[in-house]
Amino acid sequence: MNNYTFLASSIQNAKNEIDDIINCQTLSCQQVYQRADEIAKLGTSVTTNKQGDTVSQLANRLIELRQQLEIDTITVRRIETALDTLNSLDRLIIQGHYFEFATWDSVADNVHMSSSRCRARADEAVKKVAVALYGSRAIDNKRKGSH
Length: 147
What we know:
Elements: H1 4-22, H2 27-41, H3 53-83, H4 88-99, H5 104-111, H6 115-134, H7 136-146
């Protein structure tokens, strides 16, 4: 769950890079990027001679960015859906420690409980999130580890 914040940032950065590539301001640059976007929308890698290298590199980068954006968006959506299964207190604890990188003492102060109780609730909440994310695989792995 520590990666959630970084994934959300990665999504925004990928969107920004795609926008930067497609919305270049100079006309000659725009023509190159529009051509690259057209090629990228075909969804295949492109190789050309030296004159077309810029277009093919941009097209390949757009393909790569769009694929990564799709994967990261799906992952973040799955995490958010899993977090929705938690009650508001447990969600605050998880978000505080894992997403905002607050110390356990700080999170405990924010939710008005002891640090040890806060950690115990977080452990249970993480198990719930794991089941929400991975279904029976999370339960099966837990069983295998306890035998």
